[in-house]
Amino acid sequence: MSSDAVKKRKPKVIRSEAGAPETKRGRAEGDQDVRVYNEEVELEVRDPQQDYMLYKDTCAALAKLMEEIQELKAGGAKVQSVEIEERRTQCSVHFITLKKLNRLAHMRLKKGRDQTHEAKQRVDVLHLQLQNLLYEVMHLQKEIGKCLEFRSQHEEIELVSEEEFFQEAPAEISRPHVTRDDQHQLTLARLDWELEQRKRLAEQYKMSLARKEKIQKAIEQKREYLSSLQPGLQNIMQASLPVQEYLAIPFEHMQKQAEVARHLPPPLYVLLVQAGAYGQACDKNLSVSISGDVDEAKALSRPPEDSQDDESDSDAEEEQQNTKRRRATLGVQLDDKRKEMLRRHPLSLCVDLKCKDGSVLHLFFYYLMNLNILTVKTKVSTTTDLSGAVSAGELLNSESLLNCLYASDHGKETPNPANRYQFDKVGITTFGDYVSDLGHPFVWVQKLGGLQFSSGGAQSGLTGSALSASHMERTMKLLRGRLQARLALHKQFSSLEHSIIPVSSECQHLFPAKVVSGLVRWTTMSCQEFTELGFVQHVLKAGLVHETDLFFMATVERGTARLRAAVVMNPRYPEVAPLFSLSLHWKGERSGRTDDNLQAMESEVNVFRSELQGPRPGLQLLTNQIQRLCVCLDVYLETESQVCDGSEGPKEFPREKMCLRTARGPSRLKPFKYNHPQGFFSHR
Amino acid sequence: MGPVELLHMSVFSQSFSPCGRFLAAGNNYGEIAVFSLSAALSPDASEASQKPILNFTAHDGPVFSLLSTDTHLLSAGNGEISAWSWAELIKKSTKAAWTRKPSYETSLEIPEINAMIINPKDNSLIVGGGDNNIHIMDMETGIFKSVLKGHTDYIHCLCFKEREEEILSGGEDGAVRIWDARTNRPVHCIEVFKYEECARPQFGKWISCLATDSDWMLCGGGPSLSLWHLRSMSPTSVFPLPGCQREAVFYQDLIMSVGEGPHVSHCLHGGTVKAQIPCTPSSLNTLALNLKNSEHRVMTVGGSSHQIDVFTNFSYRAFSLSF
């Protein structure tokens, strides 16, 4: 309708003016004084609720008017009647009101929309600002983070601690008045100081290097000088040979030996060195020498490539004969393997121990290469002829001479436990079968060569030369002692076999002047014969008899009484005393088990043996024991009480020994203890 | 003690402790060993419990006699008597409580002491030994108050009759002498070897063992072991044992004796030998019965061996203690 036209004429909103809405409606064009009708101002004044009521009223009025008109029309009134016309004008007015109201509603709506839009704009602007600020904040935070993470290279340098720094650095660098407060300055100062120190040290390093170079050069020069001396020295040595011979210094000989010694296997070498050293230092009667084939020894140590060339040549020759040659039988092969396993090194050592009386103990030491053990063979050479004592046959037998030098070291088995496996491969059951050929593998021999096997008892933790040196002195002393003991026994035995008990003058005081009982027989026995005796079973049961012992039988007689003494002698005589077991045949058979007095006699020689040792080294123990047995038998027979068994007549053995009492104690023992120099017998 | 010394050892004396749980034994080297019977008899006994808990040298010469009082062990060495407190011994302390020597006349050889007994009535110790005399010592003061002389050769064994207060002594001279303990005077002298039924001239005349039980007396040695009735002073039974007996005891209705030969002989009063139980030593010197303790009621014998046989059932050897 004409609302658009009204809108076109709408002027600008006048805000400052309170605005009276009822201004004259008229056609004012460009006239400032003309009052315009401002419907928008009117809008602010009117209440929407009222307008709504007005609208509803107007609609209701219209509806009513229409109704009336309808009625009137229905009533047959003319269209142009006044009432209808009146009502029609009223309707038109109402229509105009409705239009105004519609216009107002539209205007309100537009206003609302504008306001909303404006607010939204404002909000958008603020939002954008907010976003910008947030973005900036984030950016700044990242920057801060990066700054904080920054690791300057200076932190990787290790600086001296602050206290040290303040102490050492000179004042112009440390500037304590500044740096104590300011961390940054402090760090700078420290870095400065570090730099200076490093420069200084670098200087020192350069100088040291230069010095080292100089010294190196000097050493080189001196070395050249020394090597130039060598040919001159050789000439001098050659020239000195005749001088050596003239002065009898075997310098050259020792050199040659040292040369050969280079080809010795290590255990023999250790033994050579240690024995030689011991001989020089402590024992002038000990000498060591090397014997054997040096070339073979050299051949052993030659690398296998050389021999391969030879082999290929010989192989070619052999191939031609191959068809003729038969393959060796299995037995022979095994035999060869055994021989190979038991092979000895071509070089051997010979150690000679000389004694004061001129007899020499020769020891030959061999090294079994595959078994890694040393063996020894012995030989005794004496100045006098040693025949004549039948019972002494075993004494100097080279097989048994060195038996049990140390307790239970009988040398029949190899001390190296690894050999067991090697033996199994080639079918050797015991090493004992080969001992007579190859020598005895005693444990002390291994120790002298510096070989220690874990099967031994106490481990000393020493090996090699230290082990050898720790055993050398004792072993040599034992060897010498053994030889002397055996030689002494030899002499004693030849005397005993002639029924003479050799008692030296130092031991005369142990026995009375007159001893009537005498030794009539002295024989040797085998182990078998010994164990079959009836009166030695107690010794066997006590475990005091071993296979390596020597067994003898002494027979002492006086009148009709015959005393048999079975002797067990340990190879370590006289360290271990011989053990006597007695059996008396006189008016019946009695032994130490049945007769307490015979047991007392056994005690006299077995238990109180320290009295009978004689002068050191106690080699007269056996003969003194036998002499004491004779004395005790005298006492026993003479103190036998006169029994009333119906036989009259004088006693067979008149009392000659002086005794204070003939019986003492519950077992009524006889007095067997001889007192010197009073010469009477008493009880223990 | 090496193996050779052990081989030549002889055990001469034994004594049980007052509580009956320990055994002390003396040997010819002058050592005394204390064994714990409770350990050796317990069900989990081992080899180690058969060894002595304490072994020390008590005297120079052999220990021929051991005797236990209520608190002490008395041991006799060469002419001296030492006392050891049992409580100390069990704690393994070897300090002697006291040592006394009877006064001897000769000075050339110190005589041994072969037998010791206690007279409970006046608390005195009676010893006999190598000087042919019996010495009586008062236990409280330690003074030797009297000497009984009469034997012509050394004394082997002593015995005490409580009811009549009489001392019996047997010696090498073959005589059994009876002394009155109150008056110290000899009452009787029996020379056993003069009786034909007992005498064994092929051995000798010495008397080495004596035992009494009210009116009965056992004696033996060179002559056969015989049972005597003291009232009538005559032998009623003679035991046909082959060797010379060294110790005999009355036990219930049996007589047990040891001597030469490796066995313990059980005999009846009538004169028969009921049994001979074999032992390890080849001849025996001492027999002891532990009657003080009913738990450890054993018999132990020792002789010419380093082992002491223990019999829990008196008919056979159970095990051996060894020095």
Describe what you observe in this structure.
The complex is a heterodimer of chains A (684) and B (323). Chain A has 684 residues and is α+β, with helices and mostly antiparallel strands. Chain A contains 21 helices and 12 strands. In chain A, the strands form 3 sheets. In chain A, strands 5-6-7-8-9 form a 5-stranded antiparallel β-sheet. In chain A, helix 3 runs antiparallel to helix 4. The longest helix of chain A is centred in the first third of the chain and has 68 residues. A 4-stranded antiparallel β-sheet of chain B has the order 1-2-3-4. A 4-stranded antiparallel β-sheet of chain B has the order 5-6-7-8. Chain B has a 4-stranded antiparallel β-sheet with strand order 9-10-11-12, with no helix packed on it. Chains A and B meet through helix 20 of A and helix 1 of B. Chain A: It is found in: Nucleus. Chain A: This is THO complex 5. Chain A: GO terms for molecular function: mRNA binding.
Write the layout of secondary structure elements.
The complex is a heterodimer of chains A (684) and B (323).
Chain A (H helix, E strand, L loop, with lengths): L2 H6 L30 H7 L2 H27 L7 H68 L12 H7 L2 H4 L1 H4 L3 H65 L3 H11 L4 H16 L4 E7 L1 H8 L2 H18 L8 H12 L5 E8 L5 E9 L4 E9 L37 H8 L8 H4 L4 H6 L15 H34 L20 E8 L1 H6 L4 H5 L8 E9 L2 E9 L9 E7 L3 E3 L4 H11 L14 H18 L19 E2 L13 E2 L5 E3 L2
Parallel strand pairs in A: 10-12
Antiparallel strand pairs in A: 1-2, 2-3, 3-4, 5-6, 6-7, 7-8, 8-9, 11-12
Chain B lengths: L2 H5 L3 E6 L5 E6 L3 E6 H5 L12 E4 L7 E4 L3 E5 L4 E5 H5 L7 E3 L12 E7 L4 E6 L4 E5 L5 E5 L6 E7 L4 E6 L3 E6 L4 E7 L15 E7 L2 E6 L4 E4 L4 E5 L6 E7 L2 E6 L3 E6 L4 E6 L5 E6 L9 E5 L3 E5 L7 E4 L1
Antiparallel strand pairs in B: 1-2, 2-3, 3-4, 5-6, 6-7, 7-8, 9-10, 10-11, 11-12, 13-14, 14-15, 15-16, 17-18, 18-19, 19-20, 21-22, 22-23, 23-24, 25-26, 26-27, 27-28
